[in-house]
Amino acid sequence: MAEIGETRRELALDCFLLAGKILMENGAETYRVEDTMIRMAISQKMTHSHCFVTPTGIMFSPTEEMATRFVRINDRQTDLERVALVNAVSRRLVAGEYTLQKAYEELQVIDQTNYKFHIWLQILAAAMASGCFLILLGGSWSDLPFAFVFGGTGFIIVETILIQTRVKFFAEFIGALAIGILALLAVYSGYGTDLDTIIIGSIMPLVPGLLITNAVRDLMAGHFVSGLSKGAEAFLTAFAIGAGIALVLSF
Amino acid sequence: MNWPLEAFLSFLAAGSFGVIFNTPRKTLLSCGLVGMTGWLIYRSYVLVLDDTTQASFAGAFGVALVAHLLAKKFKMPMIIFSVAGIIPLVPGSKAYNAMRNIVENNYLEAITYASEALMISGAVAMGLVFAEVLMQLFFKRQAKRIQRKIGMTQN
Fold first, then answer.
1. B96:A217 CB<8 A
2. N or C: which end of chain B has fewer CB within 10 A?
3. Which chain A residue lies closest to B80 (C-alpha atoms)?
4. Which of B80, B95, B128 sits opposite A83 (nearest CB)?
């Protein structure tokens, strides 16, 4: 009987850590990850558990007699659908609609499935966002095709380099550099009119908006370790984009 | 200023960011609406009072309020709605101008732009957090009131 209880608690731990890992990998705030894990733990009668979440790893310490577990988080992306799905599973587990086994299976399915929109749809979205921002920031309608095409191109370049090298900083630098060169060519050839708005509109899809928001939210909630490291990531991204553009402008 | 056009463009821009961040399919329209709210509040504030920092605060505050209500409605994390919504408020052009002036050795002007960009991003973050804290206070009080009511009816 004690044996069954032990495996059940191991399963519970696996379940919490998997939920935390998926949330952290896909762009949830730190306080949400901790809150979700603690709520799930309380629903499984582990009332004195503690967890410590950073952007690169999660530590979870259940009750006194069990060992602390750790899970490493290697790559982070933004996939808010997974965040919503894990949130739904944890709500159901806490409400008692799901058993632990069922919840763990659901989480594994979420971890394996690819929910992303098709890559061409994402590129189209990036291009559309660039075009919209060009007009919103006061650009002229004749520049619209340039922002549309360059925004999409920059997004393609960043995604391709990310798949090839996994170095985010480098990918964003090259993407911004390409956008800058293309915009400069468009204006020098006489077809584009305003270099500044074309560039600003086109780099908008690369701006680290999610990271900045999350960093500040984490800092305000008292999660200083993750707040500072996410802030550093956002700063590096912004710096990479700025350096790419600055390199073009210095010619 | 062309109101319907700006409303439509900000809606489209925020919706596109929803696709890039892969928000759940059924919330894409709401994401666009949140972005539109933020941008329209920002623009009207700039037109009336001509202060971009305060306008960014007001815009982010509006975004967070609407995002919180939608999060309650859809029973999903608030971040899904707020992220796409604040993208139009990010001070991209100020940061770009700061970078450009640094490259052209106009350091004084660069500092002006950079500090403005810093102030605006701070204001956006403050707007988000303030709205969230207020909503939490409000909903906690409401929940307590409901609990009391239920308690009274039971007695």
1. no
2. C
3. A80
4. B80
Give B119-150 pLDDT, tens digit per residue.
988 898 889 888 888 888 887 787 777 767 66
Question: Mutual orientation of helices B92-103 and A195-203 as an angle, nearest 10°?
Answer: 120
Query: CA angle, B143 as apex, B137 and B146 as ends, to 5°?
Result: 140
How many percent of chain A have pLDDT more than 90? 27
A217: chain B residues, CB-CB within 8 Å: 125, 128-129
| Contact yes or no for B95 and A27 at CB 8 A | no
- Of the CA atoms within 13 Å of residue A123, those in its CB half-sphere come to 14
Give the strands of the sheet with A69-72, arranged side by side.
A50-54, A57-61, A69-72
Q: For chain B, what are the domain ranges? A: 3-154
Per-residue model confidence (pLDDT) at position B14: 92
Q: How far is CA A186 from CA A190, A227, B112, in A?
A: 7, 40, 29
3-state secondary structure of B100: helix
Work out the burial of residue B126: count CB atoms within 10 Å of its CB; fewer than 13 is exposed, 13-18 middle, 19 or more buried. middle
φ/ψ bin of A199: left (φ > 0), alpha (ψ from -120 to 50), beta (otherwise): alpha
Mean pLDDT on A209-236: 84
Q: Does B12 touch chain A (CB under 8 A)?
A: yes
Tell me the pLDDT tens digit for each residue of A84-134.
Answer: 999 999 988 888 888 888 888 989 999 888 888 888 999 999 999 999 999
Q: How far is B152 from chain A (nearest CA, A)?
A: 25
* pLDDT of B111 higher than 80: yes
Residue B61 has pLDDT above 90, yes or no: yes
Name the minimum distance, in Å, from the CA of A6 to any CA of chain B: 33
The Cα A234–Cα B22 span in angstroms is 19
User: CB-CB: which of A117, A200, A249 is closest to B92?
Assistant: A200
For residue B79, how many other CB atoms are within 10 A of its CB? 23
Which pLDDT belongs to residue B150?
Answer: 61
B77 has pLDDT over 90: no
Least CB-CB distance to A133: which of B13, B19, B75?
Answer: B13
